[in-house]
Amino acid sequence: MEKLAIPEIKVLPYQVRTAEINMATDRYLLGVPGTFLRLYGWKHPTLSFGRMNKGLDELDLEYCRDNGIRMVKRISGGKTVLHQHELTYAFISDTALFPDSVVDTYRIISRILAGSFRRFGLQAEMSAEKGDRSESSICFRETSAFELTVNSRKLVGSAQYRKRERFFQHGSILLDIDWQSWKRIWKLPESSTELEDRITCFTRELNHAPEVTDLADAIVEAFSTCFQSHMTDLTLSHRVREEIKALSAKYIWTG
């Protein structure tokens, strides 16, 4: 692995927040100097839509609304993601500290995540090349270069956004999957095995999922080791939380 040294990484420990606050917090940290690692969950099941998202006619939006599934915009690209039984990570830093290539930065972060998963007995591999592209709106249906898989099934879906000298990468680590909900949302027949053939999760591979806080701690430790970093817990001030709350309105998805 590349020997990149980051003296300090500020860590926002695992917290569960609403969809809009989650997206606004990632965007806020993009504009703050320093390197940040954030681990979080979602207060409600949520669909997040990437910039330029297409294929919305595949989705049963009425089912989502009737079943309390929220909808939110992401600043990052990529296709639609269902955030439900997962741990989400966000890593924010300076582009000058990393390779110019988005794909090479993916590779570094994926290696760190894979190392943390091994602590729990899960051996994830990195996809070397992009998988088959399709018109499907499902993010987890396709594997991009250096995303993490187990037995060729996608385990982690990530997206990156760069703004001049700064970038963030956030992604979903699947702990469990409610296959019935996924199929209802994407209008797939109950008998379809398309998703099961392409996607996996901790529970499927290990017959259980680690405690989310234990996995979050392992990821923090893996980032610290990789970048030889001192990890400092960060508490957002009341003023910052109010700024994020005001920013969150931008990420409400209205269709």
How is this structure best described in words?
The chain has a single domain, classed as 2-Layer Sandwich (BirA Bifunctional Protein, domain 2), CATH 3.30.930.10. It has eight helices and twelve strands. The strands form three sheets. A six-stranded mixed sheet has the order 10-11-6-2-1-12, with helices on both faces. It has a three-stranded mixed sheet with strand order 4-3-5, with helices on one face.
Task: Tell me the number of helical segments per DSSP (H or I, 4 or more residues long).
Answer: 8
Count the beta strands. Answer: 12
CATH architectural designation: 2-Layer Sandwich
**What do we call the CATH topology?**
BirA Bifunctional Protein, domain 2
Query: Which series of helices and strands comes N to C?
Result: EHEEHEEEHEEEEEHHHHEH
Regarding quaternary structure, what we see is: single chain
Summarize the structure.
This protein is of the alpha/beta class. Helix content is 31%, strand content 25%.
Task: Annotate the secondary structure layout.
Blueprint: E1 8-17, H1 19-30, E2 36-42, E3 46-49, H2 61-66, E4 70-73, E5 81-83, E6 86-94, H3 102-118, E7 125-126, E8 148-150, E9 153-154, E10 156-163, E11 166-174, H4 179-185, H5 194-198, H6 202-206, H7 212-227, E12 230-233, H8 238-248
Parallel strand pairs: 1-2, 1-12, 3-4
Antiparallel strand pairs: 2-6, 3-5, 6-11, 7-8, 8-9, 10-11
